[in-house]
Amino acid sequence: MNKNKEKLLNSRYRAEKRFQFYGKSAIFLALLFLTIFIFKIFSTGYTAFQKTWLIVPVTFDAETMYLDENPSKEDLEDADYFDLALQTMFNLDKSASEKQQNDLKRMVSYFFEREIKRELLNDPSLIGKTKDVYLTASDDLDQVFKGNYPRDLPEDQRRVTDYQLKIFDQLVEQGRVESKFNLSFFTYPDSREAELAGIASSFMGSIFSIVVCLVIAFPVAVLAAIYLEEFAPKNRFTDFIEVNINNLAAVPSIVFGLLGLGILLAVFQLPRSTPLVGGITLSLMTLPTIIIACRASLKAVPPSIREAALAMGASKMQTTMHHTVPLSMPGTLSGTIIGLAQALGETAPLILIGMVAFVNTIPGSPLDPAASLPVQIYIWAESAERGFVEKVSACIMVLLGFLIIMNLFAQIIRHKFEKKWS
Amino acid sequence: MKKNGVKMIKINSKNVDVFYGKKQALFNINLDIEENQVTALIGPSGCGKSTFLRCLNRMNDVIDICRVKGQIIINDFDINDKSCDVVRLREKIGMVFQKPNPFPKTIYENISYGPTIHGMAQSKNEMDEIVENSLKKAALWEEVKDRLHEPGTGLSGGQQQRLCIARAISVKPEVILMDEPCSALDPIATAQIEELIDELKKDHTIIIVTHSMAQAARVSQNTGFFHLGELIEHGSTDKIFKNPENKRTQDYITGRFG
Fold it and tell me: Do the domain assignments include residue A395?
């Protein structure tokens, strides 16, 4: 009898130990995946925050720019910088052949002409003088400098020619190559050239979409939730609505994209590729999430508070607005932020309503065409150039950072404003 | 309270039946409540005493499946009549619940809420006065006067319950309903509340539901005994406790069941 009991007790302890081991292994596995994921993204992406510059001496020769003496500001604006820019690059190797000259030109971004122009517009007194100017290196050289590009491949399999490497190495030796923080990644819109591509357009697109989504989804969802939870009679019809709201939350997001395409674009003729349409589509998706969160937090308000208010002679409306709703707000808000975070990471519906288009302008309002961060990731991931690989990871980092901040905010709201009742 | 030797009746209930869905919870209750007296409702759990109490300020309206039949006449007016406005009714009939349920707001806001929604104060000074008087009447003023703007939920259980009483009397109700107000409190806090009830009956008619027969005997002048949804016996507390007419009342009082 006693022996049996001891056996039983031991096996119970062993069962608990086993269970704890399974639990710990599960957590370890989850953390391992997360670590690998984050490590991969950071190790490929961190270089995107650096940009390689070639420091090239530019002689601002008035003749090459076809400028008269004492040019006005307009003249400088309209001047032809192309020959000057070309000449600048050719000067790196005066004995270059025509083919090599072409290679020289390709060592910098196609933007280099404008970079030279900006320099002169900032300081018109440079005419006739020579100054070292920072020019954006082409994405291939950028990758070479960052060590992401294998140099030992045969020349015909490389995008960088031996000649370009030779000149580049000379420049490195002279200290004329510099790596600086890549501000343009945040301030430039998308571009076909990896060295010039930035997330400004998609970032603003995401912000506008989220704002439109919030403005539409929040009031509608909160009103619906309050009515359903506090005022609606409990009958078959409201049960039916409740079931359908829960179903709506489980609808795949691409279906909402089709809805946006079929109704917002086709029927209402709203401008396509815009954050307005994207935001409305996302708000349809966020609506059930907020309704469910709001109803849950209304339900969590203890009935004793409602009874207290009603017994004081408060009307149903006063009870709801003065007591129940304020008490439910922390839960509602954090649910809303989580819903918005979901919307922020949503790609499929935006692709359907055309926010996948190549947009190389920064949107100034929700009515301008824009991309969004997740769609930008998708676009870049499709591109072949090495320069876009790190950009994909960098964009993921920005998106993750954004999401983490939002979720943190949701947590803070929940903890800080949640009132404790006895 | 007797006027010219006649008992003044504040609440007069006639043939009150209450149903929860198909289940009948109260059967034909006829009970008169005397003005400016404390009436205790006693009986075992589930006997319907709380249900009856909640009929008096129509708190049963909140429960969807609950139906109330019969007449409850307060100030010559049937509160179950369609023309009765619940908001006005509940202004006149305050309630204190079993578990202290202050709003998760400051002590001041807890008291000022009722007067605010009923428009009883024209100025900040008037409101301050109402708050002070209510807290004084609830014997809580001395303990909280320096922290009126701290959360009411930070008080002790007994203080919270007195805060709820202060909140109830802030709108100067004619009747105060108390649903086992001391069941969540320790003996000292209970004693304080009982003392308070005795004080409050000067200005208000009080109906208290209690599980403790000792409490009923201590605080009430009249007692009604409920059992299985029926009002078995009612009368002066003295009579009910010392000389009950009904066998079941006697058994309950002497602790043979319940």
Answer: yes
Together in a domain, A161 and A212? no
Q: Look up the CATH number of the domain holding residue A375.
A: 1.10.3720.10
Asked which of A130-134, A415-419, B142-146 is least confident by mean pLDDT, the reply is A415-419
Are residues A293 and A363 both part of a single domain?
yes
Pure H helices in A106-252 = 112-122, 139-146, 162-173, 184-187, 200-226, 236-249
Return d(Cα A308, Cα A326) in angstroms, integer.
15
Q: Is B101 on the interface with A (CB under 8 A)?
A: yes
Which range marks the domain in which residue A159 is found?
47-182
Q: What is the pLDDT of residue B62?
A: 84
- Name every chain A residue with its beta carbon within 8 A of the beta carbon of B62: 306-307, 310
- Would you state the pLDDT for residue B19? 93
What SS3 state is found at B227?
strand
Min Cα distance A236 → chain B (Å) is 14
Q: Which two tokens stand for residue B69?
A: 């039949």
Q: Tell which of A151, A182, A213 closes a domain.
A: A182
Asked if B163 and B96 touch (Cβ cutoff 8 Å), the reply is no
3-state DSSP call for residue B24? strand
Q: Taking the CA atoms of chain A, what radius of gyration do you get in angstroms?
A: 30
What gap in Å lies between CA B201 and CA A196, rounded to an integer?
Answer: 83
Q: How confident is the model at residue A420 (pLDDT cuts 50, 70, 90)?
A: low
Residue of chain B with shortest Cα separation from A326? B104
Sorted by where each starts, the structural domains of chain B and their CATH numbers stand as 2-253 (3.40.50.300)
Backbone angles phi, psi at B13, to 5 degrees: -105, 135
Query: A155 in a domain, yes or no?
Result: yes
Among the partner-chain residues B91, B103, B104, the one whose CB lies closest to the CB of A313 is B91
Write down the pLDDT at residue A113.
82
Token duo for residue A189: 């819109």
pTM score of the predicted model: 0.83
Chain B CA closest to residue A322: B113
Question: Rg of chain B's alpha carbons, rounded to an integer?
Answer: 18
Contacts 24+ apart (CB under 8 A), A224-229: A224/A287, A224/A291, A225/A290, A225/A291, A225/A294, A225/A295, A225/A298, A225/A332, A226/A294, A226/A298, A226/A320, A226/A325, A228/A291, A228/A295, A229/A294, A229/A295, A229/A298, A229/A299
Cβ neighbors of A66 (< 8 A, separation 6 or more) are A79, A80
Identify from B55, B103, B164, B174 which residue to disrupt to test chain A contact, counting A C-beta atoms within 10 A and taking the largest count: B103
Instruction: Find tokens 């190495």 and name the residue.
Output: A169
- Residue among A234, A313, A420 whose CB faces B153 most closely: A420
ipTM of the assembly? 0.90
B222-227 vs B38-42, strand pairing mode:
parallel
Looking at the structure, tell me whether residues A66 and A142 fall in a common domain: yes
Residue keyed to tokens 């499709």: A382
